[in-house]
Amino acid sequence: MRSLRRLLSRVFGFVARRQSEERMREEIEEHVALQTAENLRAGMTAAEARRQAILKFGAVEAMKESYRAGRGMPFIETVLQDLRYSVRTISRSPGFAAVAILTLALGIGANTAIFSVIDAVMLRPLPVRDPQQLMVLRWTARKELNFNGSSYGDCDNSRESGCVFSVPFSRTVRTQANAFSGLAVFSGPLDINFRDNGPAVIARGEYVSGDFFSTLGLKTILGRPLGPADDQPAVPPAIVLTYAFWQRAFGGDPSAVGRGVRLDNVEAVIVGIAGPGFSNITPGKTQDFFMCLSLVDRVRSEWWADGSRINDPSVFWAVIVGRLAPGVSIARAQASVSALFRSEVVHLSLLTDADGPGVLVKPVREGLDGESRGYAPMLDLLMGAVGFVLLIACANVAGLILARSAGRQKELAVRQAIGAGRGRIARQLLTESLVVSLAGGTLGVFVAIWGVKALVALLQSHVSDPFLFPVAPDWRVLGFTAVVTVATGILSGMAPTFRSARSDLTPSLRENASSAPGGAVQSRWRFRLGDALVVAQVALSMVMLIGAGLLVRTLGNLRHLNPGFDTRNILLFGVNPTIAGYTDPGTVHLYRDLQRRFAALPGVIAVSYSEDALLSRSTSGTHVHLDGAPPKSNVGTDYLAVGADFFSTMRIRLLAGRAFTSADFAQADATNAAVSAANKEAKAHADAGKASPAPRAEVAQSVLPALAPVPVIINQTFAKRYLAGKDPVGLHMGSPRNDKPATGPRPGYLIVGVSEDTKYGSLRSEINPTMYEPLTGNSAHFEVRTTVDPATLIAVVRKIVAEADGNLPLTDIRTQSQQIDDTLFQERLLSRLSSFFAVLALALACIGLYGLLSYEVARRTRELGIRMALGANRRDVMRLVLRQGLILALTGVGIGIGAAVGITRLMASMLYEVRPGDPATFAIVCLLLMVVAAVACLVPARRATRVEPMEALRTE
Amino acid sequence: MKQKADVQQGTLALMVLKTLDVLGPLHGYGIARRIGQISGDLLSVNQGTLYPLLLKLEQEGSIASEWGASENNRRARFYRLTPAGRRQLQAEARDWNQTAAIIERFFAARAEDFL
Q1: How many interface pairs between A and B have CB atoms less than 8 angstroms apart?
Q2: Is the pLDDT of residue A800 over 60?
Q3: Complex ipTM, two decimals?
Q4: Do A66 and B56 touch (CB under 8 A)?
Q5: Do B29 and A10 make contact, defined as CB atoms within 8 angstroms?
Q6: How far apart are CA A872 and CA A80, in angstroms?
Q7: What are A35-91's pLDDT values in tens digits?
Q8: Cα pseudo-dihedral A17, A18, A23, A25, rounded to 10
Q9: Nearest alpha-carbon partner for A841 in A728, A938, A712, A928
Q10: Where are the domains of chain B?
Q11: Where do the structural domains in chain A lie, given as residue ranges?
Q12: CATH number attached to the domain at B9-114
């Protein structure tokens, strides 16, 4: 308490140090005066009385010092003194200050900008109550789990691990696990035809269970949240709007609460508006409204929903989040949930105990990475790149300070001679570099603001996968910038400080120290340090140039890749008749009608459609059973449902057999209709009798023999891999029905043709065995091949679709080249940004090289003058300077190559058809770097040749 | 010649507090003089060292100061004991007496007392 009080008064004393100095002077004077008066009374002479008084008082200056030390804050006072002095010295050389501050501003700004994005994508805390208690479940197994289901990208799902479960399992966990105080499921978001009073809009709805709001701790600002009562099917289905959607679609009208809306033609009621802070617990995902689970079996917009998604335990599609009960450890929760999961999947005969099924309980932050998973490697790489830029900037500024402090030898020596300790001088120099870095950091904040804007604009130019993370500075970004700024100051000030604290400054006091032998002797250490800094800069920029070069080549390789079809002049757009209420036969009819209308347009050569557009990053896969193979030995294949004329429209050549005919489509339609009828009947049976899936299969099976197999066309890879040595055309393949009782029966496939290989999901992906089958329903993407610029047809295409059906929304209108550009978005972004930073690094390194050589030439003016007076010609002098610069650059290049070999290996997964140690890239970068370095050396070298011998000697 | 005692800071602080307790508000010179008189000139040299100590005591709140007129009618800083300072003085005096008593008993002890 007393020491706190003392600290406070010290702070006060520090602020009011002028008054207190006055008071001290006055007190001492009065003390001496009183003593003198007493001495006079004791009979001394006036002079003697004063002398004795002063003697008795003791050492006045020492006392003043200790008084001052006790009064204010001497440490801060010297710091302030250093600061004032630093600002004065730095502003005396504005050229140095400008270069150093700008360099650091670029480095710090770039780092802050990238970190802001990383912060937004990966570090932002969840907007829920106590996020550290919120857990997400993730199942694992050693074998493929053949579930029927779907996931929405909340986490990385594969056949052996995933974070989607069946809804019945969540009920089991809720009632039996005893580990969670709250448990909720969610799934989505998916596109819903949302209809208020006006026209229908496509809105994104997320299914959530009734306890979602209470488990996460979310509040509504109007109305009520969804509750467990909403899970009952009898209740009129309720939805809660997100704040943003309420503002956008309802203009923030409070009367929206209580209003009835139609979701894919199902009645629902808006019961509340969620608070503005929450969008989704999975990073980068958003939705427009939350709908209760009881809507699931009524609102159907997706093809895979053949079982009941609420009651079928083998339909895996919902993410389970739980709030740990107080006192329950993650390990205990994991053990109890694992046991439940094991008995569930074994009971359903999805897996056996030997397959090691289990569940991991993970904090939501780790368990749900969502969109951030796609951005993380890219951002890590960029962070590395800007880290390098900052290191180069530090080395650059250190070199500048070093060169400058060499010119300040005399000043430092004088300060040392009049009593400044080495620590004191070191502190002074460090203060100077900190002042420079603080100025750089402040300016860097502006660079960062601009950089974040540019970066977010770049990221949001990604059409199919928009960047949905809000980037805004928070305390983590500010802290990061502050730490980086101070670290930069210390790092760039360390080398010069260290050197000046060690070196012997006495020779500098002699006349003309800079050219005296003494100066040269002690300068050896300096130039080794200065050289090392330049070499480091060159090496770092070499690594960055090579990294950027590899990324640029990757992009080039992908751009020039032949995807197996003609990508020019194709207009793409999607239609989804299912959410407008169409059934399969109606859909097919609509597609054929549209196809006819588009084909009649002037400038259109051919029209087709397929379930997914090629190179749109979405693919479908299935299993087939090859005739003659042992039972249960199925092989995997990609598959794509296509419309008539698909192969001729896309210009994919057929190597054998024929394209689909209208008879093939009729055949496929008939089979599809019969299979869905059989499934419906089976389901009705199962629902009525509450029986096991067995009778359902039986019913379906009985219909099967009457059905002809679906005609399919396979690609070359399929033929080579699975049907080597056989003529594929005319062969039959079965569906793997015996393995998956949950899936409906299918009558198998008949191969009618073999097509050339094409890339399906993305340019990067391997070409898998692929099977094309006639499209019999569901949503589709149209492909319109034109002779004119495809973009000019957009308006007329919209008109035609509106004429066909006013309720049918068009989605994703783009050309095939735009689509490809879009899938190459990340590659393009990376190659552009890494090139930018690499060029920045190169520029900084060249400034470093140039600065060092310029300084060298200035310092050696006299030496060069003597050399020239003794007969050296201009070329010799130029060679002298150039050689020094090029040796440094070459050393840097050599070290850079070694480092690059190690570092580029880390980015192997981002490259395409170029190895991390690609010799061509290395060679080109070396050449580029040496040429640029030579130019940087040339300027000071030419200046050296202009030294006039007489002038140089006269400067002595 | 008698050595001047090397007075510890804490001891000097105690002397200052006691002086102010007994004599009321005093200026720096007065305190120095009083301590010199009572301690038999033990502190007659380096009176200046008193001032940093006064500053410290004031910062800690044991004493307070204000301007007043000295004997020769000039401005001087007068120090007085605060209630906190009085409590501190009592506590330290108690400690001091205790310590002194223990040391005294120790010195009075003879060899047979330890058997």
Answers
A1: 79
A2: yes
A3: 0.83
A4: no
A5: no
A6: 51
A7: 888 888 888 888 998 898 888 888 777 777 777 777 666 677 778 888 888 888 888
A8: 110
A9: A928
A10: 9-114
A11: 2-72, 74-126+376-509, 142-356, 516-562+820-956, 616-643+652-774
A12: 1.10.10.10
